[in-house]
Amino acid sequence: MLIAGLVCATGIFASFAIAKHAVRSTAKPRFYWGLTSVVASGCTAWATHFIILLAFKPGMPAAFDPLLTAVSLACAVIGIGAGIVLSIRSRRRPRRQFAAGLVVGVGIVALHYVGQAAYLVTGSVHWDLRLVSLSILVSLPISGLAVVAAANRNRRWQIAAAPLLLLSIAILHFCGMAAMTLQFDPAQSLPAFSVLPQNITPVVAGVSIALIGLAVLGWRFDVSAKLRLRHDRRRLQDLANVALEGLLITDGDTIITANDSIKRLSGFRGSGLTGSLVSALLPDIDIASLPEKEEREAELIDAQGLPVPVRVLRSEVAVGHKRQTVVAVRDQRERLRTEAKMRNLAFIDQLTQLPNRTRFYDLLTVHAASRRARERNFAVLMLDLDRFKPVNDMLGHAAGDLILRQVAERLRSTARDDDIVARLGGDEFAVLQLGAEGAHEAAALAQRIIDAISLHPFVLEGQSAHIGVSVGFAWAPEDGEAPIELLRKADLALYAAKAEGQATFRRYDVALDERTRKRRALEAGLRRALSEGQLELQYQPLLDARTGRITSAEALVRWRDPERGLISPADFIGLAEETGLILPLGEWVLQTACAEAAKWPDGISVAVNLSPAQFRDQTLASIVIAALTAAGLAPDRLELEITEGVLLSEEAKTLATLEQLREFGVGMSMDDFGTGYSSLSYLRKFPFNKIKIDQSFVRQVPADRESAALVRSIITMGACLDMSITVEGVETAEQYDFVVAAGCDCVQGYYISRPLDAAAFTAFLGSSVTSGDRAAA
Known about the structure:
The protein is an alpha/beta fold.
């Protein structure tokens, strides 16, 4: 029985070892080694059974039936083979694996009891059916469990498979032998075809030796496979250590090995991770249920017990003959920091560190929703700095940025802690005042903001700059609740505050909507006027003060609307500049003025005003030259009138454009001289050949001594600079006599003529008389 047990254990080891080698093999070798494993399994059970029968001492002559002996071997091989095939096709499904184990058990049961039937004695055989039934009922489930254990991925289950199968065979054999009772009968004799025990012993011994040989072969295969697996794991470990990502090689939930990256990430050094559980390192992730090659967000618990944000990806890779799980763990801390920076860039104004326009709107939306839920009122204040652009242009953009940062600090100190201050862009700011009890609180905040900005100068490297702020606000819920509506209404109130003057505030009222509606209608009408030819030019003559003759005319645009009649430029030029329509409008004025001036007598030039917005168009010089060329007008018959607003921004580009036009032969005139901030410096920097004295200086002459002195000073300065002086706004004979006596070069105003359409101006040129006659008239 000891030999039978050793042979059984050896055969089972050989069968499992050869089966594992078959799994590691491919194509035909897999089939042949699999068949060998099946035959070895059957021979193991058969040899075990017949060694026990040979060891049995019945006390009477005994022999074996050769046919049934062969059939018993066939039953073992076929039954075990069928069970193994079913197990392979069951793909690790426990119920099917158990059924495959039952098939294996049935084959072994058939082997045993057919083998018992092959045992012949000189007497009779009696069976205890209870023990027979017990042997079958107990051994079959154990066989099923043995196959389930063999198919399980858990190493402990796999180790239990062979002992379970050995236990199943042992129970079947010992119970089966105990169930058999022999009774000697000297009258009976052994059949002539029976084989004596001494003749079958070499066969059993040969099978046993063959099983031992297969066991040795299987052991070598197993050792070789383990060495190869160890080598592959070492190579995979070397490759994994090169990877920046953390890598875990696992067997189920157990970590077999880990690379250096995840050791650094987790804080576990040396072999601290080897043998530990993945579920302890990554408690949020179930590796077994994690879909392959699908990233998941998780937290890694490091050596100090602190969570580390990571992304986890599971893959199955071949390592030696096995497929093992590789878990890639990517550190997300840098990504999260980058995303935080991106959110900061997306929602925070980088200059002032205030919320930007996008973030302000999001916060306004949130508080608008919570107001409806909590009935908590709030106000939206829109702010626009006064006089910021001239200061920014004079002192430079670096100083302008410093002012904006100081404005942000003053706004923070003026608002309450729970109020939200934002920079919307440029010199525009906004405040979300939370918990306002009424519109009077918003008005009080607006006044505090105006005082904080306007009453105290901004000191920049020893220089002080004075700027102001205009504020418009809307209060929820009276003025609306929707964020976009509140912003629009606060913006309308701001627009009204700026229109009324600087350093003031306005609350939204419904009249502003009507004003806005009219403004939109005016804008639509102006666009239609440009496309349908409703615009026309009028010309106001300029008189040479010395000769009394007309030398030029200023082109003035008029809009003749079919419904509203003639519309003054004061009503639509500002709108055209705000909406960008000034560019096509200005180009039309240039082309039309040049084309009509080309029909005038030689020596009569035309003056055209240019808007600051036109100078922001880098193609201005080419537009002017194209208009002159298309009209066939000499460049010296065109004069461009430029206000100081043009000169305040981008001096270098403006100077380059003016120099290009002057070289082409176009005249330059500074319009409204004396009303700006630094006219004298502009006379030195820019290529002007004429100065126009603004009419605001002329209205009080000659009665007002200061105005008269200023006009004389400007005329004298122009003469010293070799510049021609034009006085505009002359409406009376006294004003005319004064400016001529003061030495001006040209006179313009209603005293000379009102603006005339093209036909009337041409007729006026034909009837031109001397200045003395005109004055008498």
